[in-house]
Amino acid sequence: xxxxxxxxxxxxxxxxxxxxxxxxxxxxxxxxxxxxxxxxxxxxxxxxxxxxxxxxxxxxxxxxxxxxxxxxxxxxxxxxxxxxxxxxxxxxxxxxxxxxxxxxxxxxxxxxxxxxxxxxxxxxxxxxxxxxxxxxxxxxxxxxxxxxxxxxxxxxxxxxxxxxxxxxxxxxxxxxxxxxxxxxxxxxxxxxxxxxxxxxxxxxxxxxxxxxxxxxxxxxxxxxxxx
Length: 227
What we know:
- The chain is mainly alpha-helical and about 230 residues long.
- It is built from 10 helices and 3 strands.
- A hairpin with a 3-residue loop joins strand 2 and strand 3 (about 70-75).
- About 30% of the residues are buried.
């Protein structure tokens, strides 16, 4: 089923194309080295080539495709070392944010964080992956903003954008750790509410590290199975 421009705004269309192609690349459905043709994809989604170009730009930013003279746009080889580096970097940066949150978060920001956390509780208990994933994004955004450091926040946003294809709901479902994730969030929230910077840093670092390691394992298995 395609996405028609007369129904959706171009940015929404390009985002959907980006997510669809990114998911297929990460799952191994679209193999490394595969050439992607603008017109072919435009025809598939029943759109002009403009949103496809924007989707390609997003895919290139995420490190999933590359464009070379005389070769066109191709899917790159999966680079586990680079992905591991990015996971490690975002974990360390979010740990700094969590420590700062314990010191700097306003009472309103703390209540918002607690509200998001409690809202996610039934989602974790009922294994409602898409809803939990959406709240998880809000939760981490609240941590980022609560640190009240714009430079640090911008660095995290950039890294999380690059990691977005590897944080999709289908991967969250495969990780099968919603309740564990909620418990890890719970430890973090308690540390922030207690204004304990050390506990907050340790809690989020443990959380991000556990998630990252399992994601890397799943991706490596997916890549092996698709060969």
